[in-house]
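Page 47, continued from p. 46.
Same chain as before, 248 aa.
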Amino acid sequence: MRSIIPFGMRSTLLRLPTALRLRGNTYRCPCCGWGFKRLLPFNVRPNAKCPRCWSQERHRLLTLYLQQRTTVLSQPTDVLHVAPEDGVRRVLARADGVRVVAVDLDSPLTDLRMDLRHLSFSDGSFDVAICSHVLKHIQEDRQAMAELYRVLRPDGLALVLVPYLEGEATTREDPTVVDPAERERLFGQPDHVRFYGRDLIDRLESVGFEVQLERFAETLPAEAVTRYALNHDPIFRCTKPLSPGVAA
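Result:
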């Protein structure tokens, strides 16, 4: 018999005993607002996953960025959330006036099953698109970038996060590599198809975006980085220019 409890509520209930056991003041999760004496490990990283909402380092970084460097959470905003992270999704859901459409191919957290390369939305449907660690899975990444650009309104904002090798000028990829073990060796996970290099900015600009690489974590006090258990992933702030002749 299928459970009548929604997926998000079921997962929250399952996490609650561990979250209560670990409550404390050493760490704080900006996604759910809870404090903990320690966080859960994830892969080989200690103190990486929030026991309450399961946010990871980059999810908490993105949440703080939304809170401190954008107006997304403080005014009416139409948001496209690609492959939604549970913690970030909850932050958006709590914000007054924010209307979110979450899309993915298979996540239970989505509103619509949709391929980022072929979005069914009309041109200019959203003010903001959030696309974190998605492009690394898509061979035709420029097509996905072009779709993000298309569905944004003029002056719209896309926040893009990816695994990024700043020391490499050119993205490391090989579309002929299909073996999961070889992909893991070359690109970090069996379902990854690339590690981005500095030419990511060129790719995003090629579809029309104006791009700023923002090192948000480096602007925060060291104690905040530790308390929120953040990583130092760069955030690519991609703006769709206003139409020609329209003043900002």
